[in-house]
């Protein structure tokens, strides 16, 4: 049985497999046996040098996949159109702008995944106000 998969029997005795998606998206932390650096915002290797477009596109594809899956619109025309727009913007500028709903989803996702935050149980109740111009 792989990490993140649980198996149990339901009321009728049928074996049911449950997959926890959070574990499958886990990334290694900077912690070791002597110190925990999980709360650091200055991630080593993420300095003043811009990320290359391939890395931006890879992370954008992953993020958009999670976003559209969360709103039950994965692999739809809207998903494909947004992915095409993001690709064009990254090729042109090296980055892309999040839509307001993507920004809200990303903020909630970051809070949910912040393992050291004691208040993260409230992640779904987060309300985001943005002064970003679209």
UniProtKB/TrEMBL annotation:
Names of the cofactor(s): heme b; FMN
Domain Nitric oxide synthase (NOS), residue spans: 116-123
Signal peptide: none
Family annotation (InterPro entries): NOS, NOS_dom_1, NOS_N, NOS_N_sf
Secreted listed as a keyword: no
EC numbers on record: 1.14.13.39
Pfam families named among the record's database cross-references: NO_synthase (PF02898)
Gene Ontology terms: biological process: nitric oxide biosynthetic process
Root EC class: oxidoreductase
Molecular function via GO: calmodulin binding; metal ion binding; nitric-oxide synthase activity
Family of this protein: Belongs to the NOS family.
Protein name per its UniProtKB record: nitric-oxide synthase (NADPH)
Organism the protein comes from: Pararge aegeria aegeria
